[in-house]
Every structure is written in C-alpha cells, then in structure tokens.
Amino acid sequence: MLLLTPFALWTFLLFLLKTAYSNYSVDQCNWKGSGLSQEPGSVEQIFLHCAEGDVEWLYPVGALRLSLSPRLPSGPAVPSSRGSSGGRITACIKPSESFRGAQIYLERDGELQLLVRDQHQQEEEVVEEEEGVEPKVHCFSRLAGEKVALFIQSTLHRDISRRIAAFKYELRGDWSSGLLLPQQIERACRPCNDTEVLMAVCTSDFVVRGHIRTVVHDAERQESIVSVSTTKIYRQKYTLFHPIGKYGKSFGEVRTFLKCGVKQGVGSFIFTGHVHFGEAWLGCAPRYKDFKRIYEVAKEAHENQCEIESD
Prior knowledge:
The chain has five helices and 17 strands. It has 311 residues and is of the alpha+beta class. A hairpin with a 2-residue loop joins β16 and β17 (279-282).
C-alpha cells in the first residue's frame, strides 16, 4: 500500500472540506449519488452507521469523505468465537470489478493511505511483476472509538460517462478475513477449545451439520474451498446452503485460509463461521460427536449461552 503524506495535498483537502456544502445520506447503510450534481472541486460528506453496505458513485467529480460509524455491540470487544482483539475493529472494502473514475484513500491522523487505485489508470500501466497487482479486498483495523474515514477522490478523465466508482464495505469486531496477518491466520487455523465451540454456535452467521464432499485449494487467492452437504441447518444469516433434490439435503461452500491445510475428513461435522462479502468463511468446525459431548456437559452445568437442538 502507498502512503501519501504531502503537506500541500492534505492542506488543500482540508480547505475543500471546510468550504464545501455537505449532503447527508438518508440511508443508514448504503449511498448512491452522481457527480453530475456536485460542484467541481467540492467534497461531499457521507455518514453511514451500519456494519455493512454499498457505495455507488456515478460519474465521479470532486471527492467524497465517507465516515463509517457502525452500531456494533458495546463493551471492550465484540464477541468472537476465536478470541478477542481488545476492542479493535476490522474494516474491509471490496471494489466492483468495473471500479473506475476514482481512488480510495484511508484518512487517519492527518495522512492519506492509498487503498484502491483507479482501475482505468492501472490498466494503462504495464505491470511487469505479479506482486504489483492489488488484492480484490482491502482491509484495515482501528480501535473502537478511533476516528477514521475513507476519502474517495475522483480522477481526471475527458469522458466520465462510463466511470462508476462502486464498492462494498464491512466492519466487524475481531474478525479479519482478508487481512492475512500471520498471527491472524494462525489463530484462524488452530482448533477451537470447548468455550470457543459453544460461543461459535451462538454467535456465528451460520451453523450447520453436515459432511465434507470435496476440498479444493485455490493458490491464487490463498484459500481452500470446502464443499459441504448439510443434514441440518440450525441457522444461516443469508441463504448460503441451497436445497438440491428431494431428499432434504442442502449444499454450499465454506472458505478458509490455504495455510490451514484443510483436508477432506470422514464423518459428521458442525460448521460455523461468518459471511464475508457474500461468502461463507469457516470458524469452528468440530466433529458432531465432540460438539454433542461439549454441549451436554455445558447444559448440565447451566453454562450454555444459547439453546440448540441436538440429537
């Protein structure tokens, strides 16, 4: 990532922020607007208050300053099935494949850090090394309460008719799929202890029982895709597992890091995890017999945080 700190550029941007007339988005989660209604050189301020949503800027002109303030659960840290990060929040943005006409910067402590480049400009450059290609998902972390914003700056083009700067965003507490820091991968790959298993079945976006059909490794994305045949769906935030045929089974895919070395296993498992830009990412996945033992012990001790049906 490129760090931009020229004093003149930042002073100019602050001047624009102070002199521009601000328009506020009515939608708490999503924003859609057009640069055709915006004065050249102006900065429109946008405030969104959801943990996920979409931004679509048609015909970019001037700039946008996007403040993301999700109403996440209060407390020192957001609950997680894999431990806590002391109140740190991870934000990820995923630009559309046709992202054009603007660049996205992270604004923090008076500095601008380039996150997403204008795809049109990038296509015009000759990329000599594979390492120079930017990832599709861009993540950064901040402490709960820390003020950070995204600055979306339009780029100069003679023809703006086909320029659309669109992206999705997600903010989560203590969950950073896509950030790929070594300690985070290690934590995501290690087996869950009993407490983490119980937390996972209560707080995950999806909880299903099923079998592993296949495991495919994607070296380019550094991911492993686990194809799952479910025998019971306890909960799913979105329709991740679709019924196929007339035997009551549903099928879906769950992703995890390639470095976890996931292999096809025999038997019944409980799959838990979170949804990341429409994709299911694996959290805890104990064998069903182990989950049943953990759950029954906790139930007898009245230590279950939620009820879940078990055979």
